[in-house]
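Homework help board

Subject: predicted structure for assignment chain

Our instructor gave us this sequence and asked us to write out the predicted structure in token form, then describe one feature. I got the tokens but I'm not sure how to describe them. Can anyone check?
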Amino acid sequence: QAVVGTTAQAILEKFREWNASELQNQMHLFTYRPSFLQRVPPVLQSCEPNTTNVGLDLDCLQVGTLSVALDEKTRWLVVATFPVGAFGAQAAVVADFVDAEVEQIRTRSEVHVGEARTAGLSIFFGMTVLSIAFGVTVGFLVSRPLRKLSRLMRRLGDLDFAHDSCEFAELRSGRRSCISDVSKLQGTFCSLSRGIEAFARFVPETVVRNIVRGDPRSTQLHVSRREVTIMFSDIRDFTKIAEDLPQRDLLFVLTRYLSVMTRIVELFEGVVAEILGDGLLVFWNTPDNVADHAAKACAAALAQQQALLLLNSELSRLGLPLLSIRIGLN
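My token output:
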């Protein structure tokens, strides 16, 4: 009766009421000391089992609760209480038995240790030699392609796509390491290189380089205040030219024109921000600082006019219409 009373008091101290939702919704397991509940005011004091003494500690009880629903209106609360060390004596007996068995096994094992030691040393030295040889071989097969891949990664970080390198030529031809993980890395690098190279064709190289190098600011939308020079150029009467030319000739004219004009802009440190059909939107002094950017933009415009003369000469020989461009600077 004393245990029942203190257990009931402990449950009420912990959950405050018998129909507490926490008590009904899940199983609980906790410990308490009956002597602390007899104090004024009562205290719910948890306790730990005494690992140094296999006897029972009657002042340290463990309580388990489980709420069981009989029907929609009736629930039973099943409570089990037992001393924390109730299973300690049996555990001690089992531990002594296990210790005795272990001691017998150890004694029998010592008889064979001497004989096994010599054989073990021989096997050890043999395996050591084989392991060293295997490790050197695998190390060579792994480290050599990884060193090459590391060099290519450093060049890729500078937007140098290493088309002239032997290492990249090997990867592009489909040659891979015989090590599966290294081969996957090589394949991933090739995909990454192609993706960055394609990305760099449509985004300023400085922006791509900063993204590749992990610049946090470059990976987020941001605005900075600076003075820039803007150029917009397009082909006069391009709509009529596009209507009159066959698709193949139109594609050739447009590709040739944009290639020449884009190259001139880049020579004068401009950045092609957008290609709008036949039009070019070009910035100077962003994202990189460009000294005398206004003068360089004007020089680029004049160079485009000069280059157009040579381009028209080429188009004339091919029987294609001559081009006239309009350039605006701000």
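Reply (TA_rk): Your tokens look well-formed. For the description, you could write something like this. The mean pLDDT is 82. That's the kind of observation they're looking for.
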